[in-house]
Amino acid sequence: MRALPFSPNSDEAGAQAERRQEILEAAAQLFAERGYKATSIRQIADAAGMMAGSLYYHIESKESLFVEIHNRALDAAASRIFSAIAPHTAPWARLEAACTELLDIQLSLTSITLPMMNSIVSAPPDVRDALVKKRDEFESIFRNIIDDLPLPATIDRDIYRILLLRALNTANDWYRSGRMSHDQIAHQIFTIFKHQAESEADMIASPRPRSRSAAPMRRSRPARGTDAPVSSEI
């Protein structure tokens, strides 16, 4: 009779899942604080309260661990944004809801989404390719929303999206708590981008008439025998 493959009972499986979650949380904090290169397997093991060799019972490699944490962070952010835009049908309202949620994620003291995204540049090329693919998938949320906006043809939607996301994703570099809330800052960023798009559309719909150019001023001739300069035209 052939032996059945070993299968841990539910208690053991639950304990393993809980232990792995502790490792993920410890590693995520280190990656967010130190970046990919500066974080070692030994540091992750120490933070998780275990021996470095035992860590490989739960993970394949540092690279795979980093990719999993990065992807989980973006999946969690995407889930929050989808929930935020779900009640809205108007394109501009959906964009504002998405901007508000993303900015709150980026400015949250407990968020690891922004540090994980910034660590892409320090990751090895093969790991970076996987991270960029996931990030592009995440940004497709904004791509789809912006595709539905009534933007004039003179505004390139890809450039519009890139600049908007850059404004949201770099807010953590200059934000200081106190003067404005996260929602108020998100509203300011959204309003600026919406106003620019609507102003461009208005200019196309109602072009301003050309004003007659003023007649050029006549040059004054210097008196004979002097070195007075000739006045320039305005």
UniProtKB/TrEMBL annotation:
Any Pfam family hit: TetR_N
InterPro entries xref list: Homeodomain-like_sf, HTH-type_TetR-like_transc_reg, HTH_TetR, KstR2_TetR_C
UniProt domain HTH tetR-type: residue ranges: 17-77
Residue ranges the UniProt entry marks as DNA-binding: 40-59
Region annotation (Disordered) ranges: 201-234
GO molecular function: DNA-binding transcription factor activity; transcription cis-regulatory region binding
SUPFAM superfamilies: Homeodomain-like (SSF46689)
Amino acid composition bias (Low complexity), ranges on this chain: 205-217
Protein name stated in the entry: TetR/AcrR family transcriptional regulator
Species per Swiss-Prot/TrEMBL record: Gluconacetobacter liquefaciens
